[in-house]
Amino acid sequence: MQQKQLNVELRSKTGKGISRQLRSADMVPGVVYGKGMDPIAVSIKHRELRSATAGEGGQNNLITLVGGGSLDQSMAIIVDLQRDALKGTYKHVDLHRINMTEKLRVTVPVALKGTAIGVKEGGLLDLAHHELHVECLPNNIPDHIEIDVTNLAIAHSIHVSEIVLPEGVKVLDNPKTPVVSVLGRAKEAEAPAEA
What we know:
- The chain has 3 helices and 14 strands.
- By secondary structure, the chain is mainly β.
- A 7-stranded mixed sheet has the order 1-5-6-7-3-4-2.
- The termini are far apart.
């Protein structure tokens, strides 16, 4: 898991007007919350937030907060990141201050490895779940969960219970849930009978 740094500034004012002013100054309004603390309103430079979410870990990157009074040198993870649908810019961020010795629940993307036998035979690969819900210590958060589909035949699936997980990682999804399958070819329409 990648670790990043993020400069945060405390802000005393909140509300839509203040948020608009921050965004026009290329800042992103946010809030930091966690166990045993009151939520703290912060602002973050847009460029730095983009950098903190870069890389394969994305929103699951561990972030060291720099500045922000009592938040300085705290570890955090992004819980929610709102974007402008048209511009793609960040509108608001929720950060969760974490304890490195307590397990977290996060969503991790699925990455497929190999080419399924069933696909080589004309089947269609169907990835039903692009991400899985996992529980682990912050230092054990995987960038992704790799699933080898090489031996997957037509009409077969790989279920949650069959996934090989990194050490210390527990999947919270139903073990019987199919994650990836190979669907068979649709039967070709029969040629119309000659008149």
